[in-house]
Amino acid sequence: MVIVVALVLVFSHVSSPTIPQKYPTYSVYIFTRNGNHTQFQVSYSVGSTTGMNQVESLSFDNKTALGNFVQLRDEDCISFIIENTTAEFRLRVDCDNVGVYVLTRNGNHTQYQTSYVNGATDMVQIEWLSFDNKTALGGLVHFSPKCVSTVAENTPLEFRIRVQC
User: Fold this and answer.
1) For 56-72, b where at least 16 C-beta lie within 10 A, e where not — what string?
2) Would you say residue 17 lies in a domain?
3) 85 in a domain, yes or no?
4) What are the DSSP calls for 37-49, one per residue?
5) Structural contact between residues 94 and 77, judged by C-beta atoms closer than 8 angstroms
6) 154 assigned to some structural domain
7) What is the span of the domain harbouring residue 140?
8) How many C-alpha atoms does 96 have within 13 Å on its Cβ side?
9) What does the pLDDT average to over 8-12?
10) Which of 18, 67, 86, 96 has CA atoms 20 to 30 A from the CA of 129?
């Protein structure tokens, strides 16, 4: 009888499920001026940050080049600019998301929300982007050339972009 009880305890311990954590998967590239050159570091959603990297051939004033500096090779990743000032340029790269990006008004600014395949969601404030500029909203999300995007909803309250790869 003692053996049966020990087996029941072992089987009940093995069968207990593990619930995965729901965290967004993203990185933020932070570009700043360093004299006549540009430096950048990468901050990850898990809390780690790289050291500063000097890019001597990249002008901080060329915002198009800064935006194109990060190449998206993975089809389930997108990028968008979250800050664009004279002191700092931040580009966020989201991966493992479901391909639907919801933009909503937040005062004079825009909020961006995405959902991830693991069930997590994340909301980002984009202060430089006016919600009334529908052309800029449609061009906010950058993705792999293998993907296409469509505007799934365009109302006074919500602008929804769907990306299919």
Assistant:
1) eebebeeeeebbebbeb
2) no
3) yes
4) EEEEEEEETTS-B
5) yes
6) yes
7) 24-164
8) 14
9) 41
10) 96
